[in-house]
Amino acid sequence: MRSAFGRTFSYYIIVLLVSSFLLSLGFTEIFRGYFYSDQKNDLLNQAMKISDIYTQSYKNGVFDEAYFENEITILDKYMDYSFFMTDRDLNVIAESKDILNTTVGNKISSVPSYENILEGKVKWIEGNIDNIYSHSRYILCYPTMYDNKVETIVFVSVPMSELIANINRIYIIVAFFLLLAVILGFVTIHWTVSEFVKPIRELNSAAKYISKGNFDEKIEIRNNTNDELSELCYTFNKMAENLDSLEKRRREIISNISHDLRSPITSIRGFLQAMLDGTISEDKYKHYMEIIYKETERLQTLSDNILDLTKLDNSVNALNITEFDINFVINEVINLMKVRAYEKNIYLKMITEREVINVKGDAEKIRRVINNLVDNAVKFTDRGGVTVSSVVKNGKAYISVEDTGIGLSEDEQTRVFERLYKADASRGMDKAGSGLGLAIVKEFVKAHKQTIELESEKGIGSKFTFTLDLV
Predict the structure, then answer these.
(1) Whole-structure pTM over 0.70, yes or no?
(2) In sequence order, what DSSP letters do the residues of 82-102 get, joined into one string?
């Protein structure tokens, strides 16, 4: 499988090469056209000079041959181009010193586009004319007009090899800079892609490390550009931190569940073993059987609570929304808890501003919420008592459970709704608790899309308040 670096680098290199090729091709054609245009202008200027000498040689209608030959000889000394001149019948009447295969008086057998030239049109020829030149040339055929007719034809040329050599020099220069651009582009792209892919490689390596259950791996964010890769690395680090936190919490939960399961199982096993060994007399069987029964109830409660939370996590436990009187539910819970409150010599009362407050929700789950809150309040209150109140505000029903118990510290308040969490003060007071009651309360309230709030002060008491929609 090709790496991301290889694919990205290949794409960039292909784009660079294609772009450089097209750019160099365009520049080459521009320079080539410019060079041809420049040569054409030079040849045309020279041809016009020769043509002017011919027309100036006519004085009062008489052609001054001596003047013409003298001027042509002078011009030939300073010209960089080969030329010759013929009359309209293609008889050579003048030539430059470098013409090899013709001389004055010779006749040119044929010239391409001769008829067009006699009509006064300028023509350009690549090649040779009647084998006058030893090599192929770029030739300008320029007609000289006198009395509105073509009198002579000027042929000015430059070797094609010279033109090609100059163009090749342009090609070499362009190719050199193209190669230089490709090398610099190669180095730059390699560095850029390496820097771009490096965080991805680190992410891949860290992801592999995390997939093995190690959540302490972090990606170093080297710059503060706040680009997508930096944001991805930051998000990855946060994910790793959350996974590490979840893993620690998972281990803590397993440890707590194991502890909560071990305690009743150890008690049940110990009492049964003692009964089987005869350590406990038969007249005390009933007492210890009651203890064993309570321990099994404790196991059942723990199992049910865990199952309830699992159902909520998996969105299996759908709500059965009905309309019901929340005061009726509160009164039922209080009646069930009165005996426990009486045994602890604390009060348990209900306060409501209305006789009936109809709400929408799952009545059974709301009963569990109130039951868990009251059970918790009674459990940790040794003086004073517990008050359950219901009021209507802002179109919602507010149900509060307030106690005068031990209260919670600020740190405990932030974690009290966590699963299997038990405040340090509760561990000695509530050996039968599972640490799931308040977690279930929060999940049930959250399932109703409502909120629950906690107010507490260490040594003063706690107050839990949740909301429900009115009918």
Answers:
(1) no
(2) EEEEEETT-BEEEE-TT--S-
Question: In one letter, which amino acid is 6?
Answer: G
Per-residue model confidence as pLDDT tens digits over 233-281:
778 778 877 877 777 777 776 776 676 677 678 878 888 888 888 888 8
Helices 285-313 and 437-447, packing angle to 10 deg: 30
- Token code pair at residue 58: 């006519």
Q: Is the Cβ–Cβ distance between 354 and 327 less than 8 Å?
A: yes
Is residue 387 very low, low, confident or very high in pLDDT (cuts 50, 70, 90)?
very high
Classify the C-alpha dihedral 407-409-410-412 as positive or negative: negative
Whether residue 367 contacts residue 440, with contact meaning beta carbons closer than 8 Å, is answered with no
Q: How far apart are CA 234 and CA 232, in angstroms?
A: 5
Q: Are 392 and 400 in contact, with CB atoms under 8 Å apart? A: no
319: tokens are 């709500």
Q: List all residues 6 or more positions away from 428 whose beta carbon is below 8 Å from its beta carbon.
A: none
Residue 69, token pair as written in the block: 């030959």
